[in-house]
């Protein structure tokens, strides 16, 4: 029985395992971005259209890209390599969360200090869009992962 070099086998296995995630990720990214585009399109359709600025501020940020200013907690964020982000807001439109969740009655400050704001009713658009698209998103990404794993396994067996 020939002697096997376990260190060499372990190194080859480690190299294969490192290669699989990047190959799978590369094949899954289009499904992530397409799913984010579907979510954004659905959110735009559900968003109130008073002046159109809210709908226009709903954008998709692809893997490795930077979100628009004010879209992520008042700042910018870089999407991870396995993320596609849907954000609402830009420097001119910063009230998406107030539309989505509504506001309580409160005393105004600033220009209208001392006056009473009656509050606003919630007009949800992003969370309902998420619920409407989540099953299709899971199926799309699941198919992409399965296809990527099959392709990676086929490439390994051909090598």
Residue share in helix? 40-55%
Number of beta strands:
4
- What is the straight-line distance between the termini? 25 Å
Poorly predicted regions are: none
Averaged pLDDT: 87
Topology:
Layout: H1 6-46, H2 53-56, E1 58-61, E2 85-88, H3 96-101, E3 106-107, E4 116-117, H4 126-158
Antiparallel strand pairs: 1-2, 3-4
Summarize the entry for a quick read:
The protein is mainly alpha-helical and about 160 residues long. The protein is about 55% helix and about 10% strand. The protein has helices at about 5-45, 55, 95-100, 125-159; strands at about 60, 85-90, 105, 115.
Structure characteristics:
159 residues; mainly alpha; two-stranded antiparallel ribbon; 4 helices; 53% helix; elongated
Could you walk me through the main structural features you see in this protein, from its secondary elements to its overall organization?
Helix 1 packs antiparallel against helix 4 (126-158). 53% of the residues lie in helices and 8% in strands. The strands form two sheets. It has a two-stranded antiparallel ribbon. The protein has a two-stranded antiparallel sheet with strand order 3-4. It has helices at 6-46, 53-56, 96-101, 126-158, and strands at residues 58-61, 85-88, 106-107, 116-117. By secondary structure, the protein is mainly α. It is built from four helices and four strands; from the N terminus they run H-H-E-E-H-E-E-H. The two termini are 25 Å apart.
